[in-house]
């Protein structure tokens, strides 16, 4: 039998009731999700602020409201940050001239020369461009090249909380880009003559300036800041597309379980990871092991940890200006592979130099995200040259102890390195990868030294029959021969075979 009219009406009423219940359920679910999103993400994005000359800045994604950037927002005004540009040239000596793109006559009346290349040095969080490493870098660059060096100061925007400084670098980057456009307008100056060098947040500032200016010759990122940048889209952080050539030094990378102030992921054409890129020898400040969220909370409160490791990046760059061959980077997938010698010596195309002379590497633009590893010394000038050493012994057939090599250079410096320890046998060739702090070209002589154990007979004599050294930079092989044996503690002079 068919349904009556009354039954059809009841059925329709039930349907409407069900739909209304479902709708109410959806509404409550949406409201609940909005509340959760508000507490997780903060206020809804969509705000915008505009500044004369520089344009508008919004807090839409990816600038805020995405994983890793939940606390970020809008930048302060350029006036609030009191941004300044100080020009150093060979004519200014140790002094500088304050120049301004807003008052372009200050540039025209300065020692700025359109016939010279220009470097901009940009500091990071909690720092300044008026003194310290930024000024020292400019002065050293001028010693090796007649150029324009401009120190960018944004101290007022870099103090306070780290999150505020993160927001502010967008305006600083826009100001640098505006300055470059002014140089183009006044002097017809090409961006291909410009090199931006930035440390920490300054590295991402350089990236922002490069994103706004087509054709920048080079950007060097010195341990680009990690918190609120690691894993974010390219437009937020330093990226290979920001300049014709981007090279990066990672010295305090956040590599689990440790955390750091820098980025671990590659973010340039050539990315260098000295000593693995996280912990630097010679630095005593501790890098804690904690959850990433806890670390970001510390950073948000402007608590700086790992400062020595973080600063090593600009110290390495500084020394690389004076020691072009002392920072050879080896192409490798991991630091562990590098340490085990899997990436030794340099391939046929050669290896780049970390730091100032990285742009001399012929294959620098072959691809992006190229990883290079090296070890450095613990103290200035931090240089080291990687070698593979082979030693064949002579003397007693079998004994125990330590065997070392001592390198002497032409300036009277000596460095001693242990090759092996334990059982020593004539039947075995002992191999060791050494990162020697003495330039191989300056080595005057090599000595063999052995130290006995308490149970080694006093009359035992040992020597190096041959020592073969392969130099990692060019694959050159040096061979030294020993013509005698020595008692423990007495050096054996080795001569070229």
TrEMBL record:
<keyword id="KW-0812">Transmembrane</keyword>
<dbReference type="InterPro" id="IPR013818">
    <property type="entry name" value="Lipase"/>
</dbReference>
<protein>
    <recommendedName>
        <fullName>Triacylglycerol lipase</fullName>
        <ecNumber>3.1.1.3</ecNumber>
    </recommendedName>
</protein>
<dbReference type="InterPro" id="IPR016272">
    <property type="entry name" value="Lipase_LIPH"/>
</dbReference>
<dbReference type="InterPro" id="IPR029058">
    <property type="entry name" value="AB_hydrolase_fold"/>
</dbReference>
<feature type="domain" description="Lipase">
    <location>
        <begin position="47"/>
        <end position="382"/>
    </location>
</feature>
<dbReference type="InterPro" id="IPR033906">
    <property type="entry name" value="Lipase_N"/>
</dbReference>
<keyword id="KW-0964">Secreted</keyword>
<keyword id="KW-0472">Membrane</keyword>
<dbReference type="InterPro" id="IPR000734">
    <property type="entry name" value="TAG_lipase"/>
</dbReference>
<dbReference type="InterPro" id="IPR036392">
    <property type="entry name" value="PLAT/LH2_dom_sf"/>
</dbReference>
<dbReference type="InterPro" id="IPR002331">
    <property type="entry name" value="Lipase_panc"/>
</dbReference>
<keyword id="KW-0442">Lipid degradation</keyword>
<dbReference type="Pfam" id="PF00151">
    <property type="entry name" value="Lipase"/>
</dbReference>
<keyword id="KW-1133">Transmembrane helix</keyword>
<keyword id="KW-0443">Lipid metabolism</keyword>
<comment type="similarity">
    <text>Belongs to the AB hydrolase superfamily. Lipase family.</text>
</comment>
<feature type="transmembrane region" description="Helical">
    <location>
        <begin position="29"/>
        <end position="46"/>
    </location>
</feature>
<keyword id="KW-1015">Disulfide bond</keyword>
